[in-house]
Amino acid sequence: MSSLAEKDRAVVQLLLEAGTCPRCVLRFCCVGSQLLYRHPPQDLMKDLQEFLKNSQEKEGTVCLDVADPPCKRIRLEQSREEGADDLNHNGAVPQLPSGNAATESSAGKVCSVCLGILQDFCEADFVKKVCQKVNSADYQFTSFVFSVSLPPQLSVRERAAWLGVKQQMRNLGLPLPKDDIIQLKEAYKWIIHPQLSEELGVPADGKSLFEVSVVFAHPETDEECHFLATACPDCFKPAKNKQSVFTRMAVLKALERIKEEDFLKHFPCPPSSPKNLCDALEIQCNNGAVFVAGRYNKYSRNLPQTPWIIDGERKLESSVEELISEHLMAEFKADSFNFSSSGREDVDVRTLGNGRPFAMELVNPRRIRFSAEEMKRLQQAINDSSDKIQVRDLQLVTREAIGRMKEGEEEKTKTYSALIWTDKAIQREDIAFLDDIKELRLEQKTPLRVLHRRPLAVRCRLIHTMECHYIDEHHFRLRLKTQAGTYIKEFVHGDFGRTKPNIGSLLNRTADILELDVESVDVDWPPTLAD
């Protein structure tokens, strides 16, 4: 049972007289019934009028016969003054105005506390406007979570309304039984969730990845927070990506710090009724990211993994990332993407064998459901579009699963095939000893070619095994199994002595690398799919 008791009468009457809407009155009386807030405002006003009328005639409790689920409350003050000071100067208890005067004061006005959010923006017309926006965006979703962004000055007005009630209750010599209220956001969601669910045909779910959000603003009262910056300057610091220092969190922090007497000096209590309703500035939809993983082979020696752009100038027309992403972006209808992979190869290096694991995060996709057969067709479309790359094992994965691609990355092994040139002639027996070297430990300073984008450091890496195939007096092919993160080109030519030992120093001659292929990336992810 959710009820208004005789002790609430003064609060109800004072709030209505100050221009507070019926739903905000219920919030200030900590009425936690969701069903009650969904009643039309006109009916709530009649109920409050009846309550005031009945409570004047007799003492007792007026019960509103609705369910009473748990609710969240927000503290408005940390302390209350009670005792003899609550009486007026002559010890008498003044009388409240009549109930009719109070309700007439509140009727037909924009609420002085919620600025109309619990009035016009709970009506069917606004709900339909929100749903039209959602449906026109053409998202796939099976549930939704609703979020709302409120003007920060609403917190100031809530505090002012409560202090106004507190002052008048003192003057009336009446006790103030509580100093917390139902949060505006929660009350608003209680009202609008069932309407949105019915209109969209899906349930509201706090864990849903599909978000419908509304951003409210009230330009008429925008400057009402500004006095807090003078009273509590430490609470308002410029922040990146914030257009104003008067954020909701900053205002709440300042309201916790400011003394009651300082607040009363700068802001009217109770607050005045505004002329205009809030504006619904934005109605936005956003789907949680979808993650796609697979393996790619790169067959071109003139294709970077990611776009190659230097000083704003594109060096090559495409990249592995772009050849894959253009198809995924089109099919998932996403806003943007983030590409990651298990390591990377240079522009002139091929990736063969089972390919290199990669993952792509598709941000705010309109389409999220794909069958295994549809993913196969998408993979085929990527493969048919270019002879420079091929994709395999394309599949939907979770965010958590992507972490497996990076787990123990430096402990993983990779296998390479390098075509090597030497300045001095070689015979088979000159390179045969390389096959017997196991677990060769290298010290590699950051290569000169990547020093512009990586910090200078000495990295210890292992060459697990090597296998040589003699070609002619100046060429042989070297197959290596190495620790992931080993710079292979530098291991061959030495990078002016920055990698020690190296093939040149081992053979006691100048060596260089002509071609390099990645033959395997030993990461057991993503799972192999049947053809």
Automatic annotation (TrEMBL):
Reaction catalyzed: uridine(54) in tRNA = pseudouridine(54) in tRNA; uridine(55) in tRNA = pseudouridine(55) in tRNA
GO CC, sorted alphabetically, is: mitochondrion; nucleus
Q: Which InterPro entries match?
A: PsdUridine_synth_cat_dom_sf, Pus10-like, Pus10-like_C, Pus10_N_euk
Q: Which GO terms describe its molecular function?
A: metal ion binding; RNA binding; tRNA pseudouridine(55) synthase activity
Classification via Gene3D superfamilies: 1.10.10.2050, 3.30.70.2510, 3.30.70.3190
Top enzyme class, one word, equals isomerase
Top-rank taxon, per record: Eukaryota
Q: Which GO terms describe its biological process?
A: tRNA pseudouridine synthesis
The record's similarity note reads: Belongs to the pseudouridine synthase Pus10 family.
The protein, known as = tRNA pseudouridine synthase Pus10
Q: Which organism is it from?
A: Hypocryptadius cinnamomeus
Gene (UniProt): Pus10
